[in-house]
Amino acid sequence: MENVLNGIQPELVFKYFEEISHIPRGSGNEKAISDYLKKFGEDLGLETIQDDSLNIIIRKPATKGYENCPGVILQGHMDMVCEKNKDTDHNFVTDPIKLRVEDDMIYATGTTLGADNGIAVAMGMAVLASNNLEHPAIEVLITTDEEAGMSGAMALDGSLLKGQYIINLDSEEEGYLLVSCAGGVTALSELNAEYTNVDSNKQALLVEIKGLLGGHSGMDIIKQRANSNRLMGRLLNLLCIDYDLAKIQGGSKNNAIPRECEAIIVVDKNDVEKTKNCINEIMNIFKHEFSTSDPGINIECTETTVDKVFTDKTKITVINLLNLIPNGIQTMSMDIEGLVESSTNLGVVHTTENSVTFECAVRSSIKTLKDDITNKMDLLATSLGGKLILDSDYPAWEYAKGSKLEEICIDTYEKLTGKKPIIMAIHAGLECGLLLDKMPHAQAISLGPDMFEVHTPNEHLNISSTKRTWDYLVAILKGMNQY
Fold first, then answer.
1. Distance (Å, rounded) from C-alpha 429 to C-alpha 314?
2. Catalytic sites, residue numbers
3. In sequence order, which residues have a C-beta less than 8 Å from that of residue 316 and are 6 or more positions away?
4. For residues 105 and 459, what is the distance between their CA atoms, to the nearest angstrom?
5. Which of 78, 97, 189, 338 is the most buried (most CB within 10 A)?
6. With a threshold of 0.85, does the pTM exceed it?
7. What's the pLDDT tens digit per position in 120-164?
8. Are 57 and 49 spatial neighbours (Cβ–Cβ below 8 Å)?
């Protein structure tokens, strides 16, 4: 095993971060990492629970003088978003993440890093393994499947947890205390696909949209970056020649803004150059529109082969849905300046033998707005002869102003830094809402170090920010007996 992070402070945190980076842990593939964490807790002689959903709870008793403090739950998730560059040879089911250090940052190599939320796992492990920290009773809760729908937290038996203060470590900006987040649901629109044989006098063309920045479909939606699936819909609608459509495929996760999309179209052999010229003109339109927010847009068109294409009816319904399905920011909050209130992300488009599916992450801090968006999607899908399937519906985390935990975290931050942290809500899904539904007596807050371009292959973690965040967490725990 390489020790790329050896000697970097906080040493114990990065030791464990590197260890878990060698264990494949994409959403739905968490058995190995869950078993590793179970063994870790048991090897420390600590009470360790692994439930049927592979969630892990590890308990560490309070140190002397902290026996009467409210218990603290340090919470994160073990799964990660698996995104890679198209030219990267990496199998997320079997291969370790290849870490590298550049200046004050940790990157992976051609893939997502998994700092979201591996850094929470590593910090929780470091608290459990350290023998020189002062703290109340600790429960480290590491959930599964957070990135794909929070099914681990949904299945968790809340009665297993005894703590009153939940410190979620799934935040991505140092100096911010998160106190509220959006709820969400996965919305899958499905259209039936019918095919017909290709005309032998026609040429198939592979159209690839690439070079986009992508990003987290909640945190980065406000940056107005291009969505490759949406752009493909516009391109197919704008094409200036007659064509058949054989396939469309884009994105891999609904919670990542898609960076690439490809479609296979079939045109008259005499129209190949005209088609390529038209596509080039459309690319220039997109480049102009996104010159600031997503300047790397590129569209390539190459000849290929295919033996069947969609019927005209299927082609029209696919293009209509691609262009009309709600995508991007839907409403902005009137209460919190700069906060996205509701949004959607058309994250995945997938063609099979029988259907074309369109998978969206729908987010909102107001349930009725979330319902309104999915109702529109349902109307659109059914009007086009398809259907809408909703899955992984999770609640928003509502702000409990002035909680004792918030007071402790603010006071501790001021003592460490001489300034106040920023209290904020985010347009992203955290598990706090689900946990608080199961534990109405508890209080929650979320914090974390600086991370950048999460859910993309350029994801990176700031080393010195991680050190400061670790020191802050240690100070919060140490100060608990003063309140």
1. 34
2. 79, 146
3. none
4. 10
5. 78
6. no
7. 999 999 999 999 999 999 999 999 999 988 999 999 999 999 999
8. yes
Decide if 206 contacts 304 (C-beta within 8 A). yes
Question: Quick one: 375 exposed, middle or buried, by C-beta within 10 A (0-12, 13-18, 19+)?
Answer: exposed
pLDDT single digits (tens) 270-327: 999 999 999 999 999 999 999 999 999 999 999 999 999 999 999 999 999 999 999 9
- Please name every residue paired with 216 in a beta bridge, in sequence order, or none if there are none: 256
Q: Are 321 and 383 in contact (CB under 8 A)?
A: no
Nearest residue to 476 via CA among 422, 417, 397, 409:
409
- CA–CA gap between residue 223 and residue 371 (Å, rounded): 24
